[in-house]
Amino acid sequence: MRTPQRSKHLKPAPLDTPCVIPLREAGQTKETSFSIARSRLHVSAVPESLPCREDQFADIYYFLESKLEEKTGGCMYISGVPGTGKTATVRDVLKHINDGDYDYQMIEINGMKLSDPKQLYSLIYRHLEGKKVTPDHGNLLLSEYFGKCEKKSIVLVVDELDLLWTRKQHVMYNLFDWPNRANSKLVVIAIANTMDLPERMLMNKVASRLGLTRMTFQPYSHSQLLEIINSRLEGTVAFAPEACILAARKVAAASGDARRALDICRHAIEVAEQAGSETVTSLHIQRAITDMYQSVKTRAIMNCTLYQKIS
């Protein structure tokens, strides 16, 4: 197997060193520095490489590569709480797989965009054959399609799998069953927030018979979140080092959600701008956390007088 070529990952800055470079070396003004940082911290910004998920990247890559080389079917079930890099890592893998000489068709579906789980059948069939069919008809056609020897491999990525729940669970069962058929070349990568979703939705005996390859993304630790923030801010002068550390520690203690950490840092930039500060400090991070975590009602009660609070 070939080893995927990746960009060299950025190293996390030590906790006692700044996560920024001097203003005179960067040649940046406050406005341009904040603008650059705001853009890089957006959750939709795609970095050159994903820090702290190297092991998961390698496992997914080799699973997918082996199935494409052997021209066989298979299913990988990826679970983890929101903001742990599941979808981003899968897309990073697919980007590198596309650089190879594999003949396959890629289909990506997000369960959040389906008004009815059965629409999955219609959507998959339209991707494969370019024809519109009803969900029930699509189910029959796909069962026949994946039962015969397919011409080339198909990689089906289903994100937000949790939303494909149905009372009889036919949709989820078919999704896990198709790759295990004798001549199938379908490779399913299912992404969900629930670790034991197959056992919850299907009977344990059925779930174990499906032969899923499993992977769990754990919440990011403080050091990992700090590395992610630093990698986004490298070369900017927007943040004081203690601000990066505080944001990482607060989010790691609450959820380990990288998207939450990036959102807090982005909001802290707005707080710093409103205060006329040239750099985001720990005070701005704390204000941003307060704004984002406390509801409007909670903040209103906190600002009430003692009489108003007890009345």
What is the beta-strand fraction? 5-15%
Give the end-to-end Cα distance, rounded to a whole number of Å: 71 Å
User: H/E series, N to C?
Assistant: HHHEHEHHEHEHHEHHHHHH
List unreliable stretches of 5+ residues. 6-26
Silhouette: elongated
Based on CA atoms alone, the radius of gyration comes out at: 23 Å
Supply database-style keywords:
311 residues; alpha/beta; five-stranded parallel β-sheet; 15 helices; elongated
Q: Could you describe the 3D structure shown?
A:
The chain is of the alpha/beta class. The chain is 49% helix and 10% strand. The chain has 15 helices and 5 strands. The protein has a 5-stranded parallel β-sheet with strand order 2-3-4-1-5, with helices on both faces. It is elongated, with a radius of gyration of 23 Å. 37% of the residues are buried.
